[in-house]
Amino acid sequence: MPATRSTGSQISCTEGFDRSTHFVISTRGSRLCRLLGNPVTYQLVVLLDSDGPLAPSKLAKLTGRQISTISSHLAKLRGADVVRYDTRGKETRYWLKHKSEMRGFLKTMERVVEASANVD
């Protein structure tokens, strides 16, 4: 994947890609940010990053939410290709598909939030 490069006032992380590929990357990035904008979904990703793989019942206990709520959010994360799952018997366990990349993304988001909180 091409490196991120500053182009004046814009930063391009899709340099070298054609327009259709750039559109797909932008659309998927926007969708991921929209998903993680939901506090429950964000919390699930953080839990899966630190404690995964986890069953929906365990995630429900950790978050204080109903299993149906957790399952709905996990379905959205599956649709966005963020999580994977495996079913053994009656138990389904979820984990992050790209754990190291998601961890870097979460850390970057934390730094942005901290920086914006320190603005005078």
Give a summary of the structure in a few sentences:
The protein has 2 domains: 1-36, no CATH class; 38-120, Arc Repressor Mutant, subunit A. It has 5 helices and 4 strands. The protein has helices at 19-36, 39-51, 56-63, 67-79, 99-117; strands spanning 5-7, 10-12, 83-88, 91-96.
Which helices and strands appear, and what pairs or packs with what?
Elements: E1 5-7, E2 10-12, H1 19-36, H2 39-51, H3 56-63, H4 67-79, E3 83-88, E4 91-96, H5 99-117
Helix pairs in contact: 3-4
Low-confidence stretches: 1-11
Beta content comes to 15-25%
Main β-sheet, spatial strand arrangement: 1-2
> How many distinct folded domains?
2
Question: What structural class is derived from the secondary structure elements?
Answer: alpha+beta
User: How far is the first residue's CA from the last residue's CA?
Assistant: 37 Å
Reading the helices and strands in chain order gives EEHHHHEEH
Number of strands: 4
How is this structure best described in words?
The protein has 120 residues and is of the alpha+beta class. The chain folds into 2 domains: 1-36, no CATH class; 38-120, Winged helix-like DNA-binding domain superfamily/Winged helix DNA-binding domain (Arc Repressor Mutant, subunit A). Helices cover 59% and strands 15% of the residues. The protein has helices spanning 19-36, 39-51, 56-63, 67-79, 99-117; strands spanning 5-7, 10-12, 83-88, 91-96. The chain has a two-stranded antiparallel ribbon with strand order 1-2. Helix 3 crosses helix 4 (67-79). The longest helix has 19 residues, at 99-117. The radius of gyration is 17 Å and the shape is globular. It starts with a strand and ends with a helix.
